[in-house]
Write a structure and sequence with these properties.
Radius of gyration: 25 Å
Order of helices and strands: HHEEEHEHEHEEHEHHHHH
CATH class of the largest domain: Alpha Beta
CATH superfamily of the largest domain: Alpha/Beta hydrolase fold, catalytic domain
CATH architecture of the largest domain: 3-Layer(aba) Sandwich
Number of domains: 3
Structural class: alpha/beta
InterPro entries: AB_hydrolase_fold (IPR029058)
Distance between the termini: 55 Å
Keywords: Membrane, Transmembrane, Transmembrane helix
CATH topology of the largest domain: Rossmann fold
Shape: globular
Number of strands: 8
Oligomer: single chain
Number of helices: 11
Length: about 350
Amino acid sequence: MPSFSNVMGGLRPTKPYHDTQRWRAVALASLVLVLVTTTIIIKGKPSSLSGVSNLKSNSFHSSIQFQPSVEFMNGTNLIWQVPESPKAVLFLAHGCNGQAANFWDKSPGCPNCVGLPEERLIVLHALERRFAVLAVSSLERCWSLGREKENVKWIIKWWIEKNKLEKLPATALGASSGGYFVSALAAEIKFSSITIMIAEGQFDSMEIPEGYPPTLFVHMPKDRTRAELIRMNMEALRQKGIPVKEITCLEFPLAPKLLSDRIPGLDQTLAVRLFEVFREKEFIDKNGYMRNDGRVIPWKQAVKQRNLLLKKHELVNHIEEELNLAFAYHEMTSLRSDDIFEWFESHMN
């Protein structure tokens, strides 16, 4: 397609008037097409990047301090924190191989806490918005839907009464296995709304009761099978009159300092050196995008050969979580926390 300068340059004074008008019309139509296309691209970018503009965890400034309470009850660990003047309750369910300790940073009050980057940011966002937060560890590697569901129902009821939160709306968020668990739990606990992350829920194998809570699906459409199941379940919920919404999260490129921006305790020098290893080993393409999931590529062996993580071995899971997040196939994410909590808050009344 010729440029506009070439098109306009072809309009000679000796041409008939109607020819000039025709060329002007073509030029105007072309300009409109370019503007519309550009607008679509610009508008589509933030949605496709799914919160990448907020990739730096340090960009989320909060006066909130982690001060969790820890208790062992009914064979499992409970960790919680209640902010001043709470306005709602949030129950959190981790994914397979997770634990409640992933949601809070290590501290004197919680020496076994891990503080994985995505989990901790979800809690910080929750506390900032005055949600009282409760996380419970599953009894086994993943959540089950029998005795464990009854156990968690009892724990939530006990905890709410203990902290005198009975008058507040209750919400829940579960990721992966925790998403299936929350979807089933919501059929028996009165949540004002729920968020199911990187999971389609148990809807194909359960009776959806009247009054089931509004449901938000946060997922990564690179997992096409799950995306289709989510679409089907959203339609099934809509047919029952249940409000539903989805948030899609796509891949984004790594940058030299991204890991230090996202992971407390990982310095910029190490982050840059890790990025260089990923580039040299071609774990990322020329544009910085992950070629595969962080669980699959042999990045740990590569950085071990460079002796980069000898003093930072406790951050391996933190790094892998961020690599998984960048690949955007199946990982917990805090990047759309504002949207998630706006969903919760919009269904409290």
